[in-house]
Amino acid sequence: MDKMVEHAERFLTRELKSIKIDDKKISQLLDSMALTGFQGRRLGEVVKVWEAACNSKNTVIFLGLAGSLSTTGQSEIIKWLIKNRFIDVLVSTPANITEDLIEALGAKYYIGDPNLDDVELKKAGIYRFHDVFVRERDYVRMENMLADFMAEIDHSKAYSSAGFLNRLGGWLDGKGVNGILTEAWRSGVPVFSPALVDSGMGIAYLLNRYRHGASFRLLIDHFLDYELMVRIKSRFTDSAAIFIGGGVPKDFIQLAAVAVAVLTSGDLFKTSPHKFAAQITTDNPHWGGLSGATLEEAKSWGKEGPESMTVQCFCDATIALPLVAHALYEKLGQRREPPDLGWVFGEA
Which regions in the chain score pLDDT beneath 50? Predict the structure, then answer.
């Protein structure tokens, strides 16, 4: 029996603690949740991983932002994370960095009902995002604005998405349109979007092709995107990968970890794992897709390493992100001495 007790002690090293109802800050609640079970514990641990990354020296923090979260009231959070440098590089679906512009232009999203007749919504000129509505005319106004920007920039060169979006951020700032890209431009945060046409950007491009014919060309070099991501990763001792959702933004950040040695020495076998990694997702690993793939699985690729501080929380981002961001606000307020990535824009 003594041997059994001794053997058990190897596993019983952290005591679970019930949450007491009292006067708490959000950060204190998440600290308490980190000592409970299931996804509540994982959510509390996401804050700890992100906080540790912020306090780590010579560390670059990547944020992968998937889905269409700007339509759900999350865009101000992303702008705050950028402004206060809780992230150094944003890799986003194009939806998140275009659909926030609808509100930035003074229009609104509306609380909707997913059970209404969508044919009737179409007749009324309303687009639906599950339980969120937006006027078609407001969406089209955003697409027209993007088309205006595309028509004005220099078409004689190819851009990385980071270079293109940085120019768009400056253009928006000049027009008083305060979107995610505007804040990124002001804060010197590169924004990559490796699937740029999967949004109103694609419509804006086609609109210019209609208006200007074959004379209109706009070239986005996603291979340059990838090289820049890898070069950013290579300049720091450590890196952190924070994923809100999965998809293309997740793998784009993860692949940077396996390519540093390829770029610097041609070595296809050496990797540079992210030291910190956290993911909030609703996708499950047993379907085999990347969005639900565990960070443990990523260790087989060298994207994360055996010593990496990782956590995966299976939770709706619209629940998790506001709580995590408020906890970071209470704990840190603002990140000290974030890295300067201004050199990226000279090469993007």
Answer: none
